[in-house]
Amino acid sequence: MPNRRPPTGELLAARIARQTVVLAGLEPLVRADGPDAVHRMRVACRRLRSALREYGGPESPVGAGLRRLGQALGAARDAEVLGAALSAAARELPAECEPGLVAAELERWAGQRAAAARPEVLAALDSTWYRSLLGGLGELSTRPPDGTGLPPHRKLARRAERRVARRLAATRGLTGEARDVALHRARKAAKRARYLGETADAAGLTRRMKAVQEELGAHQDAVVARQALRELARTAHPFAYGVLYARQLAVGCEPERVERLLRPG
């Protein structure tokens, strides 16, 4: 007799319980500025928000708290990612661009941004709303929302995958900032579908959505990098930063190619 697949409510409840443990366990590491701790806590926030969102209804206080925590973690994490990417790219510049000097300057710049963002992270962890968030998550872990009436979880995941396809199709014909914004919306939809695939233990769907998310993420990273390089070029090394900017412009993303990643197989 085949094993009974747990209903959607049970799967989401288990997801919330596991990610709550992950999030709470990461707090000491984030406070100690441990390697990758901010990133891991931010991902746990996103996974929890994704699970809660599938229950439907207006955003709960717990969902609002997770969004607020994710925003507090975001600036610190973005500074880490952008600094590492730009300094690595700078080391590949031709000799006339003084790659070592530019890379060191970028590392200092990113370090300053990360240090400026850290007080916001610590203030969030010290806040009363964060303690309330942990309490709310703890309660949800033992008494999750009622999942009665929710469709099978794989159906939710497939629905989310179709949302990704629609958002990718909507980017065709767009240019400039409008295209960048539309691709970013498709990336967020892919991330949501990926998390649903993880919850449903749908390995193929999760793998496809991860590939789509990474492809669109590379494009979004280039958009953010170009903005930073425009600002940096006003202060020093305009030629070197101009070369880096041109290379970021070459990071393209063709929706038709990304759409092929959605196909099974």
What's this entry about, in short?
The protein is built from 10 helices and no strands. By secondary structure, the chain is mostly helical.
Structural account:
The chain has about 260 residues and is mostly helical. It is built from ten helices and no strands. It has helices spanning about 10-30, 35-55, 60-90, 100-125, 130-140, 155-170, 175-200, 205-235, 240-250, 255-260. α6 (about 155-170) packs antiparallel against α7 (about 175-200). The radius of gyration is 21 Å and the shape is globular. The mean pLDDT is about 90.
Q: Give the overall form.
A: globular
Largest sheet: none
**Helical run tally:** 10
pLDDT < 50 runs, ≥5 residues: none
Query: What is the straight-line distance between the termini?
Result: 29 Å
What helical percentage do the residues reach?
Answer: over 70%
**Averaged pLDDT, please?**
90
Classification by helices and strands = mainly alpha
As a whole number of angstroms, the C-alpha radius of gyration is 21 Å
Topology order in helix (H) and strand (E) letters:
HHHHHHHHHH
E-strand count? 0
Q: Hey, roughly how much beta strand do the residues contain?
A: under 5%
Keyword list:
single chain; 265 residues; mainly alpha; 10 helices; globular
Question: How is this fold's topology laid out?
Answer:
Elements: H1 8-31, H2 37-53, H3 61-90, H4 99-125, H5 128-142, H6 153-169, H7 176-199, H8 203-233, H9 238-249, H10 255-260
Helix pairs in contact: 1-2, 1-5, 2-3, 3-4, 3-5, 6-7, 7-8, 8-9
